[in-house]
Design brief:
The chain is of the alpha+beta class. It has 2 domains: about 200 residues, 3-Layer(aba) Sandwich (Peroxisomal Thiolase, Chain A, domain 1); about 160 residues, Thiolase/Chalcone synthase (Peroxisomal Thiolase, Chain A, domain 1), CATH 3.40.47. The protein contains 11 helices and 13 strands. It has a 9-stranded mixed beta sheet with strand order 5-4-6-7-1-8-13-12-11, sandwiched between helices. Strands 2-3 form a two-stranded antiparallel sheet. Strand 9 and strand 10 form a beta hairpin. Helix 1 runs antiparallel to helix 2. It is globular, with a radius of gyration of 19 Å. The chain starts with a strand and ends in a 10-residue tail after the last helix.
Length: about 375
């Protein structure tokens, strides 16, 4: 059992855009007024998304070179990431100088010196703080990043900050009739989400990271791709993905729970990455969950879209926004491989301060830029 706990959790979001406005103001013309594309947008389960690009006023990045898109990433990612980590540190009651490691996960941009180094400077990390960059793992990167953070905190006895930051809007592709591209552009949004992991003194505020588990089906690796092209990164997404995930999610989660004397009915909260409505349906069917079990995931999809690696942390943030979990929480994310990750999180004690208190006193951010 890992002796580390999630003690702080926060998000930073760029401006929000209504899905219908995005369709009528840009994507309808972008996809040639296609009725099929319109149906995909309407059935995406997304009401609004956040983006650092303002295509509503003509900021069409679809013809930009990959180099220009990376330049924008280098400008836009650091301040967004700084806000998310700063708020997570405050939530955890940890000073930046206490951090022993900063973990940064992103698959939507690269620069050197990297985002991790830029944040080490802006946050004021100690010179001996270690850094880990988790790159190009896609939507499932948050949980392996969390696992590395928990291991470090448990062994070294120092807090760790984990940042998942994705600017998917920088990778808008030129117009085409490919249904996979329509699905991608109907679903994805931008976000930064951060957690702070502390050595797990118990009882203590937060959720203990009990175990991280993974399952990869290399035979279906072509079902989900993220290719670097001259015009940004291009998503490949097979319609068979939900079926494959549905096949593997049951064995992964049930084996994880069984190792700790638990079963699916014992779980009190599900933080499932909402890759799309069909993926959530497949997870629910694969685990035999009631429709209400994934309501928070569907709401995050509706309000933020699919924000790649940051999304499961957004779901966990909302899941913990009400009453304290009375028992175990399972977080799940999915990505290229095809890879499924699951985390078993358990209450570390009576949650009266820190993480839960911050949730209870959180105020809505009218501008969509705060926690």
């Amino acid at each position: 059992m890992v002796n580390a706990r999630i003690a702080g959790l926060a998000a930073a979001l760029p401006p929000a855009y209504d899905q219908g406005t995005l369709w009528t103001g840009f994507f309808r013309d972008h996809f040639g007024a296609s009725r099929g594309a319109e149906r995909i947008f309407a059935g995406s389960g997304v009401r609004r998304r956040h983006a650092v690009t303002d295509i509503a006023i003509g900021d069409d990045v679809s013809r930009l070179s990959t180099g220009e898109r990376m330049r924008r990433y280098g400008e836009l990612a650091p301040p967004l990431g700084h806000r998310a980590v700063t708020d997570a540190l405050a939530d955890a009651g940890v000073d930046a100088e206490e951090l022993g490691m900063l973990v940064v996960a992103s698959c939507t941009g690269y620069c050197t010196p990297g985002l991790d180094i830029r944040l080490a400077e802006s946050l004021g990390l100690r010179p001996d703080a270690q850094r880990l960059l988790v790159g190009h793992m896609g939507c499932h990167a948050a949980l392996p990043a969390l696992g590395s953070a928990a291991d470090f905190a448990a062994v070294r006895g120092r807090p760790v900050a984990v940042l998942c930051l994705e600017l998917t809007s920088l990778h808008l592709q030129p117009p085409c009739g490919d249904a996979q591209q329509v699905v991608t552009h109907a679903l994805f949004g931008d976000a930064a989400a951060a957690v702070v992991v502390r050595p797990g003194e118990a009882p203590a505020p937060g959720l203990r990271v009990t175990e991280i588990a993974a399952r990869t089906d290399v035979g279906t690796s072509g079902h989900m791709t993220w290719d670097v092209t001259d015009l940004g990164f291009r998503m490949g997404l097979s319609p068979e993905v939900p079926e494959v995930l549905g096949e593997h999610v049951g064995p992964l989660v049930k084996d994880l729970l069984a190792r700790h004397g638990l079963d699916v009915p014992d779980v009190r909260g599900w933080a499932v990455h909402p890759g799309g409505p069909r993926i959530l349906d497949a997870v629910g069917d694969g685990l035999g969950l009631p429709p209400t079990a994934l309501a928070v995931s569907r709401e995050v999809l509706a309000e933020h879209g699919n924000c790649s690696s940051a999304t499961v942390l957004l779901v966990l943030r909302e899941l913990l926004g009400g009453e304290d979990p009375s028992g175990p929480v399972v977080a799940m994310s999915f990505g290229p491989g095809l890879t499924l990750y699951a985390a078993l999180l358990e209450p570390a004690g009576v949650l009266q301060t820190g993480l839960t208190a911050a949730r209870r006193t959180r105020r809505p951010d009218p501008g969509g830029a705060g926690r």
